[in-house]
Amino acid sequence: MSVFGYTQTSVVKGRILDSYSGTAVPAVQVQILGHLQQVQSDSNGYFIISEIDLPVGEQIIQLSHDDYLTKKLRVTINNGKTIDLNPVLLEADLSVGEQQTGIISLTDYELDEEEESSQNISGLLQASRDVFLNAVAYDFSATFFKPRGLDNSHSKLLINGIVMNKLVSGRPLWSNWGGLNDLQRNIAYDRGTTPGDQDFGGANGSTHILMRASQYKRGGRISYALANRSYEGRVMVSYSSGHTRSKWSYSVLISRRFGERGYVEGTPYDANSVFIAVERALNETHSLNLVGIYTPVQRGRSTALTEEVEALKGNSYNPHWGIQDGKIRSSRIRYIEEPILMLNHYWKISEGNKINNNIAYQSGKIGNSRLDYGGRRNPLANYYQRLPSYFLRNPNPTPLDFQLAYEAEQEFINNGQLDWNSLYEANTKTAGGLSAYIIQEDVTRDTQLSMSSIYNGSLSETVRLDGGLSYRILKSENYAEVNDLLGGQGYLDIDHFGEDTNFIQSDIQNPDRIVIAGERYKYNYEIKASNLTAFIQTRINLRRVDLYVTGGLSQVNYQRTGLFQNGYFAQPNRSLGDSETINFTAFSAKFGGLYKFNGRHFFELNAAMLAHPPTLRNSFVNPRQNNDIVDGLAIENTRLADASYLFRTPNVKARVSAFYNELSNRTEIGFYFTQNALGSEDNNAFVQEIVTGIGNRNVGLEIGAEVKIFPTFKIKTAASLGQYIYSSNPVLYLSGDDFDSDPLDGVVEGNDIEIVGSKRTVILENYHVAGGPERAAQIGLEYRNPNFWWAGITTNYFSNSYVDISYLRRTPDFYTDSDGLPFSNYDINTAQALLKQEELDDYFLVNVVGGKSWRIGGYYIGFFASINNLLDSRYRTGGFEDSRRVSYQQQLEEKNRRYGPLFGNKYFFGNGTTYYVNIYLRF
Length: 923
Description:
- Helix content is 8%, strand content 47%.
- It contains eight helices and 47 strands.
- The chain has a 28-stranded antiparallel sheet that branches. Strands 1, 3, 4, 6 and 7 form a five-stranded antiparallel sheet that branches. Strands 10-9-12-11 form a four-stranded mixed sheet, with no helix packed on it.
């Protein structure tokens, strides 16, 4: 029975401990249900609720933490009395930890990807009490769903206060700390532009992984996992000392992931991970934490497929591998080895005021291998001239054409893989023993030094101040290396597609050079880059209103230094030597607040104006060959706003958010072969496509709700309803070694379509931005038995996915003939049909998870299992149009081919039924 009176002096305090290890549990949310105030336990597990007007009488205190089962305590608050709850024991929620382990394990394949494709996902891989974010992490991410239409370059990821997003792409590279699942559970996530403690954050939030030895619970863990998505097996062993009387703490982990293939054929996986953290408490206020991370990984890669190839070989087909000496060998191997050494200094100035100083050193190699066939015909089995459609490309095929098509079909179906023996044999027949085919490895060797200093403090009981300064400096070596001569004695380092003796030289200072395995060839350059960021943030927490305002600064410097003098760009400083320095300084701001109607109803509003300096990837036209800087390069701007209603009771949690994102001045660079390099059909060239001034508008709703029907049974639902479209008509120009582009200054105004110099206007407005489904919905059931077993099932629906459009098709190149006039047979209705963006089919995915744990003496034994796509649905997650043939005449010809286009759209396919099973011993 509650008494509706109030006291001025009542206090509720206590200490929260782990029921298994007896160690303190920090960051536990403690709340008197129905009351506005929430507090968190500190690093020693202590909390105190001391506020005027605490409700008196019988009350319910709720304790919540992502890694523990929620606990409710019934207490009676009396006037002028202190209630001391010491200790409060929390039981670990093993299901949450196992789910998180499974998600990280199953998605690290996609997180290794750096390509600008539909396979990029948000990187939101943390277990959160937010229902919608849980759906994203556990179910939506498998389809490459992007929250609010933003990929992971719009999110910040930090480890111990150090930003891990790459300066080249703006994305975190998960492989740099992959395989450390057991020690990645201390995660704080700040949704959207809400305020965080460590950094200004990104448009799509920030994630901070704390890998501090003293913050791990004492104990060890041994686990073994079986899977069929990225790898086939994983073994992991970890142990943490927890707090010790000697003031030393340590944590260690070793793991291995392996497999001959994942779900896709020919994708071998070989990865090892080693982690060690040692912390020394110097005194009551200072502590040093040393972290070492070494996670080398090597894995095979796959590719997008055309509809014809998928129909003949299935969605798990991969053309890049073949059998050599009875073993699977892939020509496309990605190798990552970038160890990290980190030193962290924690200084507790006073209660509520602290400084965290960090320094990190990272150096290593990223390599991507592929076939170099020196101007000869592509040896891959899915090359268009080897497919049935090629022999039936003419309007009226002959009987011989049908026979050749049938033979090609049977060869592709029955073999269809890379013939390694034929490559070795071809290399033995060349003049002088020089290889005709080799394995090339594109290598990046980065050395980066990162430093940061972060302050978090309380100016008063209601005002908090956060601030930080971070600096990163990068030296990046980039070159092609001969990986394997495939039986030959050397390789001629020239452009085998070119004709002019001078132009074709990769380095005219060493013409007609013969290279051997391990030597650099084709291109060789260095990049020097630096990045300075700072933020300052004020938070005001009043009884009914929480407010914040944050300011941020980001400053970058880039410079390329060419080490080869490319024959196509032999002018002084065009390819050899230093480029001009690129400098950008950007300022950002965000603000917002939370209004508390009462202890159950909340309204949140956030807004931001963000400015992003361009990434290294989008700053140079083609750094492999020259020093040219993108013409029209500018700071990218993002304006965001979102409003949320939140409802929380002991049995119901719900959030509804409306969001609006406006992105402008974006730059994209693409590389491809086209037959329309200069606006006509007879200009074949490998080009760099530079598009500047791209604008996007993303709007939508996020909905998440969870209802506990019984103490052991709950129902949950989540949905995202979005529309992500282009909001501007940007400018495009092409560059390449087959012609020298010199874009003229000026822009195209109004709705006129014209070419300014070599620039074209791209008509993009109202096309959809590709990259995962715009709309996703889920309904799920979960059962948790008091005897420590649990199971859940979710049904997920995805729609409004679109293929990535060809920019060049939407320029005047599409409808103009070689004389600059429209094609004589040009029809507007036909053109609109040819330019219509393809929408992919909707699909359902059913996922099942479950687990069981047993406590035997001082040990926990358990397992976790998940099955994704239980019904083995076949679906496409994304795709892209081909820019090889972009004119009206060419597209009309492709569309009218009776037996399918030669250069149709290419697609990414979702996995069929996949599983993950993890068995563990915790001690």
